[in-house]
Amino acid sequence: MSAKITVKPEPARYRRFLQQIELSSVSLARLDVKAVVESPAPNKTALEMKQSVTQEIKEKEAVLKAKFSLDFLDSADKSSKGRIRAFYNVCFRPRDTFEDWKDKKLWHTFSDINLPLIVWPYFRELVHSTMNRMGWPPLVLPLLLNPSAPQKRPTKKKKSENN
After folding, report:
1. CA distance 27 to 70
2. Whole-prediction pTM value?
3. Which pLDDT score, from 0 to 100, does residue 48 have?
């Protein structure tokens, strides 16, 4: 979600960081919905998912501003058929004073790994209910979002296929 950090923090340090932060709130800050067509044909529509995050780390609170965007595009010419964009404020506070609270590397890692797991269920439900209100066919997004995972995983060849 954020700018990729090439050096990951050591696991023990990251684990201590996770134990010291507490989720205080998740709130929808803004919603942008646009329907260009009355109802897109599912077999002629491509989906494009984007996400980003900005961080505001203060002394007693961290606010991660997550943006999730789902664009509906014509499969042939890639013209827009509609979009749903949601902006969330996700607030954390320290359980106690600790030195790593403002460490950017830890917060970037957190934004890449943990934040999508927190916000995705909210966005998933929002997309489902918003499409219903728009009169569009239902869309069930995957249970988990992992933008860095490959779409197709390689399969091992069976020994009989190698002969």
Report:
1. 19
2. 0.81
3. 94
